[in-house]
Amino acid sequence: MKCRPAALARGLRLQPARQRSVKFTLSVNIGANSYKHLKLANGTTLAYIGYVRTRNGETLLKLTDRYFFLILFAIGVLFSACSQSSEEIHHQTNSRNANRVMHNASIEFTEAGKPSGHLKADSLLFFDLENRTLGFEIEVIFYDTDGNYSGTMVADSGWIENQSQRITVYGEVFIHTVDDVRLWTDSLAYYPGTSRIRTEAGVRIEKGGEFITGQAFDSDLAFEDIRITDNVSGRLKQD
């Protein structure tokens, strides 16, 4: 089951009347890209569903009495529905289940004798039976099919498929390319064999003072062949 928290959140419409402030273990992520999210303490990011203000380091989520329990129920649904949430990654695949654990890791990937990627992580958990590796606080350096540097990606966590070298990351995913293209999303897969990146989640891409947003994204690492098929908005400057 795919997690689409934004779709759930968009169904909630809060009214300004009869509001009260309720403290949550939430932090506000309002970046330069004008996206507004609520980020829970365990790393799960929800679409902006309420009325948020920050004061003296505290985050207050203001809800109407009418929708208070509805919001709590929606948050519970989001936790149970996200098949790759940070909570699941942390609790079901912890260091006690791993065959080996590596800290301050650095791994290089090659394709046909040329560099295809360089992975850095605060920690890597190796699962031999599944033939894949789980990383936390990930940084991936991309190379194109000629072995030239293409860009860098950072994310909260992600899986590395040991045989195919495919990397799928989750959380606060951000990419910055050599041509100053910037991308934000909640999940992303990198395919080193074709040097392409893909996601079904929402994305925002900025380049040369312009931007485009949408869902169902697929692109080469140079962002010269960008394909976004759903909910497309905005435009990008053509070179």
Q: What's the short story on this structure?
A:
Helices cover 11% and strands 55% of the residues. The protein has three helices and 16 strands.
Short descriptors:
mainly beta, lipopolysaccharide transport protein A fold, ten-stranded antiparallel beta sheet, 3 helices
Question: What would your notes on this structure say?
Answer:
By secondary structure, this protein is mainly beta. It folds into 2 domains: 5-90, no CATH class; 94-235, Sandwich (lipopolysaccharide transport protein A fold). The protein is built from 3 helices and 16 strands. It has helices spanning 5-10, 68-81, 86-92; strands at 19-23, 26-30, 36-40, 45-47, 51-55, 58-64, 100-111, 114-127, 132-143, 149-161, 167-177, 182-191, 196-199, 203-207, 210-220, 227-235. β12 and β13 form a beta hairpin. The longest helix has 14 residues, at 68-81. It starts with a helix and ends with a strand. The relative contact order is 0.10. The model is unreliable at 1-88 (pLDDT under 50).
